[in-house]
Known about the structure:
Layout lengths: L14 E3 L2 E2 L2 E2 L2 E2 H22 L7 H20 L8 H17 L12 H23 L17 H13 L1 H34 L1 H44 L4
Antiparallel strand pairs: 1-4, 2-3
Amino acid sequence: MTETHGPLHQFVIEPLIPLQIAGFDVSFTNSSLWMMIGVAVSVAFLSLATRRAALVPGRLQMSAEIIYQFIANMIRENVGDAGRVYFPLVFTIFMVVFMGNILGMLPFSFTYTSHIAVTGALALGIFLTVFVVGLFRHGLHFFHLFVPAGVPLWLTPLVIPIEIISFFVRPLTLSVRLFANMMAGHLILKVFAGFCVSLIGAFGALGFIGALGPMLFNCAMIALECLIAFLQAYVFTILTCIYLKDTVEISH
């Protein structure tokens, strides 16, 4: 179903300000709008939280400090102390993904992380960062990444192709995991919400009684989706840290 009120309509990118440059469509869309809203909310929150840094933090400052420590610990545990240079990158990735996920739970909003173009661009950027920085820091020794330590010599011809494939499919797996989870969750919410409306519209008061079950399920799903919004941001960020570790140290 792709009609106006179908479950898939919430994923349609619609131009708000149509614009063509040299034959390319660079329109300002609903996706662009919610990306800007995500940036504005993040900047406003962090600016207000750190405006009056106090020895005894208030709730807002404490929230910002918790996020800061959460990301800093994630980098320290997965990349090491040398990974502190990546803190701005990792922190930004977490906020971009989390804002896209959680803002998408608002009524009439748009979940930009439910599009493979967005998650794919993020994942490709991380992959290129790992590849370019790894080559710059380690030179040709970076390719030792494809020969894990302790592998018997006779297994090397088999292991190397597997390691190369697993390395180059990272952007695909990273992007599809986030996009698929966001899209699937929102589809389920829309389908059950539409089911409730259809029951009430068809049977009136009797339909409302029959719709109580799906409505309660939808409420539980909304709570679960809010949790998934954070978990998917966490998974995306921690995998980023794991991949960035390859630029810091090579096993041999």
